[in-house]
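Lab notebook, page 48
Experiment: co-folding of the full assembly
Goal: obtain a model of how the components sit together before planning crosslinking
Operator: M.T.
Materials (sequences as entered):
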Amino acid sequence: MTRPPTLRDVADSAGVHPATASRALNPETRRLVNTETAERVIRAAAALGYRPNPIARSLKTSRSTSVGLVIPDLTNPLFPPIVRGIEDVLGPAGYNAWIVNTDNDPDREQAQIESLRFRQVEGLIVATARLEHPFLDGLAAAGLPLVLVNRRMSRGDIPSVTADDAAGVALAMAHLVELGHRRIAHLAGPQHTSTGRTRANAFRQALADHGLPDEPALRVECASWTELAGAAGLRELLDAGVDCTAILAGNDLIALGCYDALADRGARCPDDISIVGFNDMPYADKLNPPLTTVRIPHYAIGAEGAQLLLDRLRDPLRHTRSVVLPLTLVVRGSTAPARRG
Amino acid sequence: MTRPPTLRDVADSAGVHPATASRALNPETRRLVNTETAERVIRAAAALGYRPNPIARSLKTSRSTSVGLVIPDLTNPLFPPIVRGIEDVLGPAGYNAWIVNTDNDPDREQAQIESLRFRQVEGLIVATARLEHPFLDGLAAAGLPLVLVNRRMSRGDIPSVTADDAAGVALAMAHLVELGHRRIAHLAGPQHTSTGRTRANAFRQALADHGLPDEPALRVECASWTELAGAAGLRELLDAGVDCTAILAGNDLIALGCYDALADRGARCPDDISIVGFNDMPYADKLNPPLTTVRIPHYAIGAEGAQLLLDRLRDPLRHTRSVVLPLTLVVRGSTAPARRG
DNA sequence: ATGAAAGCGCTAACAA
DNA sequence: TTGTTAGCGCTTTCAT
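Observation: model returned without errors.
Model output:
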């Protein structure tokens, strides 16, 4: 195993100075060098199997061509498609992403983000934003390029890519009302996240739009976006003796928790209660019953987010912008006409 | 935003030479420096908020403290837990992983691995091994530290972490035989992978162990580990008029494909045909019917694999070893007593 | 159009 | 125990 060739080796082999070889090999500066010389250098590089050392380049240019990707938990099926969308955009641009999991723990999040800065990432794509998020505020204030995906923050000045949650809720609610449901409950996600808040607000808006009463008893906030929290939420609702024929769940995992809670009580979906989820997670169509849900374009969210960050890195002064992506309702077996009476 | 402090700033602030500061700050070399001086340096570093620049360190030491992780597709629910296991071991050791997806395309795999070497990874954890894999042979021959997870290669000298697939098949088959099944088919995964081959071999061994005939018609090789290929495989079997009461699927996705194919034909699981999967993928318990499957310790596979690689990086001369992890059968609704006649 | 020279921030001989 | 020196591989002024 011999030492990999360096720029110097290429220069020697082509009979030029390393600086000239550098210029010839870099597309950005190639025009500064004689075409013939450039070709000679390029041939020499190819012959030697030369690959520039990105670490040396980074040290000189203080650009790492890497970014950090902050997600709650890779094993949540929501995130892998986002990650792929991001990588498929970053890769061709010469960038790569370091992925960290926060497990929704602010301390862990802070430690992980610090380890990313330590790695000299040029920017961050963050999927863990809370509406109020002082730590992210600080990073933004420090000038670190930041893009939010999936969730936004209250302050609107940090670029974000989100789905049109309000429209999704409107679709879901219209579907339920169309099926004859009049008493619809909402098992909301955590209200410190934009997704949780936006969907809950849109739920109330939909009630108003359809002329249905907004009863506080029909709204429960789940402690987390998990099956466990969803089951607990529905049990709370049922224990309180609340009467409803349909549930709008904050997301698919909460909907799955509803399946569990219903099974515990010997109730059936959709016969007794219809359920709509959010996300269209993988295999939602294979569940029992297949889950009606709002499909979110996760891959596109990732891809758009990466694009926003690249734009920002290439032109730091460019105006920031946020992107909202459309979504669709996928009707399956978990929703059915309401009991009449 | 002022320039981040460098080692030089710390040295100046502590009134020592940068080399001394370097020694004081690095735990490995701290014993070379006077305790008081070291403390003064450490205090100065803390006061300035100094963080060593890992890129400069890498350039000097030619160690990147990064490794590459090669997987087929992050959106396959098999892999996120492996990734987390890997990261949870690498992180505390000061290493991080670059993740690449190959989509099971050898060309893409090669390109991605080259981009990892370009990034100066110190080693590779590979989840895409085929039994014969010349490209990986080449990397191993070139001295790149390599660890295989999930799948092995024919040559046994590359360290690997796998589940005890043969034992898993034996468990699954014993379960089916116990339930009264006598005509059991195997929808095997691709035979160029160790998992596909090992499970298929163990299937035939189990037939022999239980005194059942080994009929070639009862074995089908699926083209890939996917739902689509699983559905195609079962259709092929049914179209051939093969009579069986149970199916051992190569993995859970192939089992899901069987669900689809059965539904197409108006047959039901487990009433008409029982199915056992492999992996215990997330939400396998929520499927219709809940899937009986062999649970593989994915997180542990990742964690062990990372440990093997770290051992290798710390002591390149250390003997290689491979790890085989035990697994368990999870019995659910997709298996039931066979029809009698 | 090319070469010379300097330096990104750090570490590791070697010298004192 | 500390300082001196050199250099990892590359890019980028500046000079020619």
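Interpretation: Chain A touches chain B at residues 1, 51, 53-56, 58-59, 64, 73-75, 77, 80-81, 83-84, 87, 91, 96, 98-101, 115, 117-120, 142-143, 256, 259, 282-283, 286-290 (CB under 8 Å).
Next step: discuss with group before ordering constructs.
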